[in-house]
Specification:
heterodimer; A: 263 residues; 12 helices; B: 251 residues; alpha/beta; Rossmann fold; six-stranded mixed sheet; 9 helices; 9 strands
């Protein structure tokens, strides 16, 4: 295939040629964190658990609500937020970290991004233990709605795939962008309903309404908490995912030719 | 039928200094563009290869020689598809295999077995074929029981042998090798060359950059001398090497 999309097409083709490598890379990195460590990645889970415990306690006191209400909300918020930020922030150094691979043969940016997201999804699976724990403690029974949340997860992953593609390419060219991303993610943590809920904002709920992350979180969090799927958020999330993928495709397609010489 | 056709190929690297890398510099330039002449540093490039035309076909075993910075590695990476020509056209037919960097991906906690999987899958093998080839990799690398031990217990020589054994399990039509044999690995060079000949047979193409003329002499049947990114001499090994030795007596 030639024409405008040739560079992207080629990148995907090579990813397909190396299809067996990507899952291997994702698992290898997870497995290496288990070497000579009893808990491995569960150390991150433990850290996250402590954070959840402390913040839930604090927020229940601050907002004057019961911890039965706030803890499940905060748990899901922090687990998903960790998934989002670690993926995005890891993508900003992806190509530089993996540069020896890029210099050894013609390889694929989309493949490396897929491996990154698979690895982060495996870690998300580790963190999900916290949610199960909270569900047991607060008597939240699993329901069919949980499957809906699982079905909504790919929408978030596809959005991240598009964004990570953009970021890993652009940060290779502009290193400052890496700092900028960290900055935006930090601000995003406070401006996104991760810890607080939209109705906690009196008169200022536009901060949440206009934030795409609100909706990406909502389509997974609502069903897990036993609420129906918010269709409005689902529509927005699907549009956001499509836009992110388009942006990623365009960026990679435009920059693929020169990318390696930017490393 | 493997084939390499380069038609007036040039390769430029952009020169990105600290200033160019920053977004601030670009934005500052964009703002400045409104009123004053810009101070862009665009066009700062290093021309690594100039106007190279060559063809290679089945049975060619090419030694790529030239002083440091002549463009040997750039040419090999261009042939591998890592870099695209900035001008001209490159057409390669056949599956490409590379032996460029030996040591990457060798995390100390991985075993030789893990590494073999990692490298083999990256080179594009499917899992089943690779698993079948593992005993052969273990044998050729001569690691014995070390194959199951972490890489941090390996000597440099063991690492090279392992990486070489894995990388040559695939049988490409075109094999590109970039100076992987240091002077310390003389014992390994002989079996390594046999293995390359065995794998590529007489029908493939091998391109092989080296400073080590005596060994290249035994292994190759054609030589290409690069200098400052240009093709200086392309011909039979003996001819090119003697011209090269006249020019650079230290080689």
């Amino acid at each position: 295939m030639t024409g405008y999309w040739q560079p992207l097409w080629r990148d995907l083709q090579v990813a397909f040629d190396q299809a067996a490598f990507w899952p291997h890379l994702a698992w290898k990195t997870v497995r290496l964190t288990y070497v000579r460590s009893l808990l491995g990645p569960f150390w991150i889970t433990l850290t996250l658990g402590l954070q959840i415990g402390a913040l839930s306690f604090l927020l229940a006191a601050l907002l004057d609500t019961s911890s039965t209400l706030i803890t499940p909300w905060v748990t899901l918020g922090l687990i998903l937020w960790t998934f989002i930020t670690s993926s995005l922030s890891e993508s900003t150094s992806l190509i530089r970290v993996q540069s020896p691979y890029f210099f050894d043969r013609e390889t694929s940016v989309s493949g490396f991004v897929a491996a990154l997201l698979l690895r982060q999804s495996i870690l998300l699976g580790h963190h999900a233990v916290l949610w199960l724990l909270v569900a047991v403690v607060f008597g939240i029974a699993p329901s069919a709605l949980w499957l809906l949340a699982l079905a909504a997860l790919p929408v978030l992953i596809l959005t991240l795939f598009g964004l990570c593609l953009c970021l890993c390419v652009l940060t290779t060219r502009f290193r400052d962008l890496q700092r900028l991303v960290d900055l935006v993610l930090m601000a995003g943590f406070f401006l996104t309903p991760v810890l607080w809920r939209q109705h906690d904002l009196i008169n200022h709920d536009f901060i949440a309404t206009w934030n795409p992350l609100t909706h990406l979180l909502a389509i997974i969090r609502a069903p897990l908490l036993g609420d129906p799927m918010p269709l409005h958020s689902l529509t927005i999330s699907l549009v956001v995912a499509a836009l992110a993928l388009l942006a990623g495709a365009l960026t990679l397609n435009t920059c693929r030719r020169n990318l390696i010489s930017w490393i | 039928m493997p084939e390499i056709v380069l038609d007036r190929v040039s390769l430029d690297y952009p020169l990105l200094g600290a200033g160019d890398k920053s977004l601030r510099a670009l934005m500052a330039n964009a703002l400045r563009a409104a009123g004053q002449p810009t101070r862009t540093r665009r066009g700062g490039v290093v021309r690594a290869l100039r106007n190279i035309t060559l063809t290679a076909g089945p049975g060619d075993r090419i030694a790529l020689i030239g002083p440091n910075g002549a463009g040997k590695s750039s040419l090999l990476r261009l042939l591998a598809g890592i870099f695209r020509p900035s001008a001209g056209a490159a057409r390669l037919t056949g599956q490409i295999g590379t032996l460029f960097d030996i040591g990457y991906g060798m995390e100390g906690d991985l075993s030789g077995y893990d590494f073999a999987l990692d490298r083999g899958l990256f080179k594009g093998m499917d899992r089943a074929t690779l698993l079948q080839a593992l005993p052969e990799i273990r044998r050729f690398s001569g690691l014995g029981g070390f194959f199951e031990q972490p890489l941090r217990t390996y000597s440099d020589g063991m690492r090279v042998r392992l990486a070489f054994a894995v990388s040559t399990v695939i049988t490409p039509d075109i094999l590109l090798i970039d100076e992987i044999f240091g002077a310390g690995d003389q014992h390994f060079f002989e079996p390594a060359c046999d293995r390359i000949l065995d794998k590529i047979g007489r029908s493939g193409i091998t391109v092989f950059s080296t400073h080590w003329l005596e060994l290249a002499d035994r292994f190759c049947n054609r030589a290409i001398w690069l200098e400052a990114g240009q093709l200086r001499y392309d011909g039979p090994v003996a001819e090119v090497f003697s011209a090269y030795r006249d020019q650079c007596p230290h080689a």
